[in-house]
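Bump. Still looking for AraC effector-binding domain-containing protein structure tokens.
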Amino acid sequence: MTTQTTALMIAPESLSVATTVPFMALTFSTRATLLTLNQHNHVPGELYTEAEQLGLTPTGPIQYIYAGVSGDETNEFGLEIVLPVAHTQAKPFGFSLKTFAPFRCVSYEYTGPWDELPAVYDALFPAFYQAGHKYNGHIREVYTATDFDNPNNHVTEIQVGLV
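Sorry for the wait, here they are.
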């Protein structure tokens, strides 16, 4: 289900339970807060550059993986920015290679500008809890389509980890 944030209401039935497949990714890891998140906007481009230099084949879009994130802007959490790649024995220069295990989650597809994501989360979590789900502290954002000329066309799959 795709929605625009102008509605600011997400129906519980628009959420789907899924388990992702495992994947290998070129990975940047750090600690961040919601207030410092934009300091890492350069990383996706650098991941693509390094993948090209190593001859790695991307197998999926950039993902931001959050561990311990909450709505508190000052809460520090684990952040991994990853580019899925084909399995390789290559040795990255500035990043690491990591295999990510399957992830059981509730999935929601959002279409629109990323600066409206906080409002999307404000609508998403009530629907998540209303559907009887329990949050495990992990979230993934999969940037399935990007359009920097028209950010209203960005498509982001939000995956909320399940207990």
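Residues 1-5 have pLDDT under 50 and may be disordered.

Edit: fixed formatting.
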